Amino acid sequence: MNDRKLYLKMKERVLEQMDFNRELSDGEVVECIEKELSRADKTEILSFEKRKTNSRNMFYSFRKFGILQELLEDEEVTEIMVNGAEKIFYEKKGELYSYGRHFADQEELEDLIQTICAGANRMVNEASPIVDARLPEGSRVNIVLKPLSLDGSAVSIRKFSQKPMSMEKLLEYQSLSKEIVEFLEKLVKAGYNIFVSGGTGTGKTTFLNALSQFIPREERVITIEDSAELQLNGILNLVRLETRQAGFEGVTPIGIRDLIRTALRMRADRLIVGECRGAEAVDLLSANNTGHSGSLGTGHANSAKDMLSRLETMVLMGMDIPIWAVRGQILSGIDVIIHLGRLRDKSRKLLEIAELSGMEDGEIVLNSLYQFKEAGEKEGRIQGIWVKTGELLHREKWENAGFGI
Predict the structure, then answer these.
(1) CATH superfamily of the domain spanning 167-400
(2) Phi-psi region of 138 (alpha: psi -120 to 50; beta: other; left: phi over 0)
(3) 284-288, 305-309, 382-386: which range is least confident on average?
(4) CATH code for the domain defined by 65-159
(5) Of 71, 207, 343, 380, which one's alpha carbon is 20 to 30 angstroms from that of 186?
(6) How far is CA 327 from the centre of its chain?
């Protein structure tokens, strides 16, 4: 009997031994597994290493996340990609690798998918084959079932550090300069509405976590996300809201827009929207324009200027108004855009801070305040400095916070 068939047979026998009328402890599950391995030893020759591997894999499949558990426990792994039962890849220190292991079969992969969704109170099936969820420790999960994913169900897991990111850590990683940290601290404390832009994997959520350490502790903060990922630093009066998808019979979906409108009735000092992807930009801008200073949000874009175009598109998805009115809403609702990037050496850096300074010929004008300038490479790492490229023009909030002229 080959290894895979033997493993599946042993796993089936372990399941037969289990008493599902009560909650089994981890110790009892291990006991059932060891009992089956001892029985198998009498008919099949199992090496110590093979026995250890089978025992671990079975326990993980019953109690954790199967063969992915090892990758989930590795703190250096930042992304896990499952392309069907046979192909698993992962990202470690910015590099992609093929995982040397795979699921026993498609059924084992489907079982894991259902385990993930059940733990996140989500539903995925043929009627709803795409779902976003999160693992208990906060990792973000996207699932696309077969046959939409032609080569087998696809699972993408974006891991987040268990320790919330701080500005001190970003300085250590050389993601920005000390001068910029001091400037950002004053912007947040003064209540500027800040929008963080960047491409996929540039660290927008991580940066938002770090920015949050500057929010005064006495303020009430409400976060709004599709899947809760933010790990805010030191905020005592914190309410975390998460969307709800449709799927279960009688369950009404609740989206970002619903949560923003609800948050406005919850006496929030600041709103933090994990990511704007569509019409919810209308509600965020409306909130910012009705007294919620110091709000934070993120969005996908390739530059600060591109983020303005994306915001225009998102607003128009939610309401039919002239473009000049859209731009007026953006100009009133957002004070500063921070753009992040991932360079060719895989490092993540703050590339630009730009202020929305006004309108000229019907277009929003950006006043660039800081930019990252490359200065060559050393041992495969990009070298550079952050250059101050302008002065903050709108200083009312700055001066009201007592930071002087």
Answers:
(1) P-loop containing nucleotide triphosphate hydrolases (3.40.50.300)
(2) left
(3) 284-288
(4) 3.30.450.370
(5) 343
(6) 28
